[in-house]
Amino acid sequence: MIELDDDVLHFHFPEVHERAGCRIDFQRTLRIPDDNRDYPLPPGLGRFPLAHVDDYAARLPAAWQCHGGVFLPIYQAEALWLHFKGDYPCAVKIAAGKINAVSGAAWNNGLNDQPQDYVVSSEQPWLDGFNVAAGLIRQFVAMPLGEGYTAEEQLTGAAEHGGLQIVVYPMKREVYAELFERRIESVYEEPVVLFSRSQPDMGLAPGGLMRQKIYADEYGIDAWDQHHGARVFVHLANSAQYHAITGRQPPHKPPTAREYTKAGLPWFDYYSDGKALPGSGVLGGLTSLAAKMIGKGQGPLQDNEAVAPNVVKLGKKGVVRQGEF
User: In the chain, which residues have pLDDT < 50?
Assistant: First the structure.
């Protein structure tokens, strides 16, 4: 079952386990410079608002009605990242225009481990883009379909799907019990918490390089219950289309990377011992948005100046100084 609450998608599987599920929201963020330098993590600037396709079916394209799901407003050349939360491990498969964002393969519902084509929600706090090398992604940047920028168009030659596609599979009940419940019950009784980050179609193009690990699955593919999954199509509407559909104004445009950095605000570097997946050769061969624009004779990408971020380290381990009392 999938529920939308406060702009968060809640995936839960009570038929597997009363705790089984995870939450995903979509964060607005800075578009990092696309200059082949690698940048740290930009901040989250708040959740994108999400709306049910079925609530606005009469105003939407037939393909959107067929796919169902939800939609969000996004400006051309605006970036986004996916935020995962939940203590019950789930395997999450993400595609952009039905191109897998981890492996570069065409969409299919099942999980694959040769190569791994999914992330584990409890281990992967976020996903900002296409997996192009070990520890590096190219940022998700929204562009209109039909102009050749998106990963979908670069790899298939077609502008058919756009949006984001997500399927979630929970950990098998018996695996969760073996790995987590016995250990938890031996320490304390934890209360059960039920889960209560012009043209309408847009896709995602590969933007600037960012330092981010996509973590290898340490549980193994057999840990996931692929008989109980839930999938959703997340449509991307440009700002004008969103207003026409909903009657509401989209969020204001985010600041540029240069404006944000000049204000002295932080970027982030996340430390973890987890093993990073190797990059996808298919995704690594994509042409970035800035390079594609120059190649098409459209001039340089606007607001693409290099910046020197003020980096805050997250997840850093070390001895705590006791100090004086």
Answer: 184-198
Q: Are 27 and 45 in contact (CB under 8 A)?
A: yes
- Give the separation between CA 257 and CA 268, rounded to whole angstroms: 13
User: What pLDDT is recorded for position 320?
Assistant: 67
Please tell me the pTM assigned to this model. 0.88
- C-alpha span between 27 and 321 (Å, rounded): 35
Find tokens 């406060």 and name the residue: 6
**Angstrom distance (rounded) from CA 261 to CA 255:** 10
Between strands 119-120 and 90-96, the pairing is antiparallel
Q: Return the SS3 of 178.
A: helix
Cα dist. 261→46, 207, 251, 306, 311 in Å? 18, 18, 21, 10, 10
The residue type at 1: M
Report the alpha-carbon distance of residue 36 to residue 18 in Å, rounded.
Answer: 45
Question: Buried (b) or exposed (e) across 46-79, using 16+ Cβ within 10 A?
Answer: ebbbbbebeebeeebeeebeebebbbbbbbebbb
pLDDT tens, 228-239?
999 999 999 998
Per the CB < 8 A criterion, the answer to whether 283 and 140 are in contact is no
Please report, for the chain, the start and end positions of each structural domain, with discontinuous segments joined by +.
Answer: 2-314
* Cβ atoms of 284 and 136 closer than 8 Å: no
* Residue 80 main-chain phi, psi, to 5 deg: -145, 160
Report the half-sphere exposure of 305 (CA within 13 A, side-chain side): 10
